[in-house]
Amino acid sequence: MDKFTKMKNLLASVEVDANKFYNSGNSAAGTRVRKGMQDLKNLAQEIRNEVTEKKNSAK
Predict the structure, then answer these.
(1) Is the pTM of this model over 0.70?
(2) pLDDT for residue 28
(3) CA-angle at 34, arms to 20 and 11, nearest 5°
(4) For a Cys-Cys bond, which of 12, 26, 29, 47 suits 17, CB 3.0-4.6 Å?
(5) The dihedral formed by the CA atoms of 15, 18, 22 and 23, expressed in degrees to the nearest 10
(6) What's the CA gap between 59 and 43, in Å, rounded?
(7) What residues make up the domain containing 45?
């Protein structure tokens, strides 16, 4: 559950940069959005693996 909370916090921080990129045209914020989205993808994969492992070990 800790990783899920971390993911929500990361998404909130990416949202700030996405707003700067799309509404203010800040190119540096776009780079941060791309990095944040990659981090989200990796974290989501870790969560998926953790859930699968826990689900399979319960059987």
Answers:
(1) yes
(2) 96
(3) 70
(4) 29
(5) 50
(6) 25
(7) 2-57
